[in-house]
């Protein structure tokens, strides 16, 4: 396992972080969650990401149980707040009240005295940004958190927070957690370029596009699988995505890699990215994923990958054009 600094911060995170959304989010028994987290640590993963809203706090409890026997200094523990944790008007968002109370609740569930990286799970346009920045600075000064970061913020929102913190002498955010993978590249060029310029590390989620980039869905969704009941995943199984997966699999095979390893190495090719969050439903799945750390993709392989992505993009544009023509024709007929 290779480790990288979290942007300009001194803390180092494993290139692959382990996320609890799948394993500890209510999809699998507690013993499975504990076993996968412990296997991840054995394989060199030191960074564990969760959130209070995952299974309404139960994911944090599972993570705390999995990590309780380890030396605390060897673990980078990250969690998030902002989404609703109850029916009350102050049980969501990034107000100073909710951030402080959410942090205390997460500390209790995780069974730890401090959180290494405390993140905003979303932007809150109902709370002044100055208040949110002050709330996280308060937590740093109180010793409840060591660093704070943001998730799913735009470049302008990030720059605004960094500017406020600089002007007020607050601890500034050190990281962004966005979605990023071969098929979903919304962070290019912004906010990726903003984070690179301001020195924020990037910890991406969904680097395998919800499992699509493992190749296990090339023939469809297995009956009884967790993906079978998820409409948002079924929408990914388009002909152009399936064709791209097939072509990418052949490239990976020729390079001596699995598709998942190549997809992770592609994400980590960008040095502004500190880590990619992976999940697993079984401990034995982790060895394959961890092997992606430290893999450097050749220029020829990167060029081949880009050609596949270009063909996929052309297929999407053609499908959009067909849909537009069909809509226009239907409108003319009415």
Poorly predicted tracts of residues: none
Question: How far is it from the N-terminal to the C-terminal residue, by CA?
Answer: 61 Å
The CATH homologous superfamily is called NADP-dependent oxidoreductase domain
Query: Strand order of the main beta sheet, please?
Result: 3-4-5-6-7-8-9-10
Count up the helices: 12
Question: Which range does the strand content fall in?
Answer: 5-15%
The average pLDDT score comes to 92
Count of individual domains: 1
Biggest sheet statistics = 8 strands, parallel, barrel
Report what the structure shows.
With 334 residues, the chain is an alpha/beta fold. It has a single domain, classed as NADP-dependent oxidoreductase domain (TIM Barrel), CATH 3.20.20. Helix content is 44%, strand content 13%. The chain is built from twelve helices and ten strands. The strands form two sheets. The chain has an eight-stranded parallel β-barrel, surrounded by four helices. The protein has a two-stranded antiparallel ribbon with strand order 1-2. Strand 6, helix 5 and strand 7 form a beta-alpha-beta unit. The longest helix has 35 residues, at 299-333.
Layout of helices and strands:
Blueprint lengths: L2 E3 L6 E3 L1 E4 L3 H5 L2 H13 L4 E3 L8 H10 L8 E6 L14 H15 L4 E6 L8 H13 L3 E7 L3 H14 L6 E3 L14 H7 L2 E4 L26 H4 L4 H16 L4 H9 L5 E6 L7 H5 L8 H35 L1
Parallel strand pairs: 3-4, 3-10, 4-5, 5-6, 6-7, 7-8, 8-9, 9-10
Antiparallel strand pairs: 1-2
Helix pairs in contact: 2-3, 4-5, 5-6, 6-7, 9-12
């Amino acid at each position: 396992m290779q480790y990288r600094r979290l942007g300009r911060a001194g803390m180092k995170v494993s290139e692959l972080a382990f996320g609890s959304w799948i394993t500890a989010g209510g999809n699998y028994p507690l013993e499975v969650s504990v076993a996968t987290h412990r296997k991840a640590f054995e394989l060199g993963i030191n960074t564990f990401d969760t959130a209070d809203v995952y299974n309404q706090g139960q994911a944090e409890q599972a993570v705390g149980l999995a990590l309780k026997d380890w030396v605390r200094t060897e673990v980078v523990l990250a969690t998030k707040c902002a989404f609703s944790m109850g029916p009350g008007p102050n049980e969501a968002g990034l107000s100073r009240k909710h951030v402080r109370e959410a942090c205390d609740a997460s500390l209790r569930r995780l069974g730890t005295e401090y959180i290494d990286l405390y993140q905003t799970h979303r932007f809150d346009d109902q709370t002044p940004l100055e208040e949110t920045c002050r709330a996280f600075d308060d937590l740093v000064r109180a010793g409840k958190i060591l660093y704070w970061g943001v998730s799913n913020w735009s470049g302008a929102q990030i720059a605004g927070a960094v500017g406020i913190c600089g002007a007020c002498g607050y601890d500034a955010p050190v990281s962004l957690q966005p979605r990023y993978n071969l098929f979903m590249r919304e962070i290019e060029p912004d906010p990726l370029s903003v984070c690179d310029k301001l020195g924020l590390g990037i910890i991406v989620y969904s680097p395998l596009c919800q499992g699509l980039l493992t190749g296990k869905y090339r023939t469809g969704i297995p009956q009884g699988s967790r993906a079978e009941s998820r409409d948002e995943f079924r929408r990914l199984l388009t002909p152009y995505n399936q064709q791209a997966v097939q072509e990418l699999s052949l490239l990976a095979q020729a390079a001596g890699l699995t598709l998942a390893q190549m997809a992770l190495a592609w994400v980590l090719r960008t040095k502004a990215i500190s880590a990619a969050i992976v999940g697993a439903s079984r401990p034995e799945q982790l060895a394959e994923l961890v092997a992606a750390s430290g893999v450097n993709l050749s220029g020829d392989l990167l060029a081949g990958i880009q050609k596949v992505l270009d063909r996929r993009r052309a297929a999407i544009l053609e499908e959009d054009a067909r849909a537009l023509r069909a809509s226009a024709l239907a409108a003319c007929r009415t």
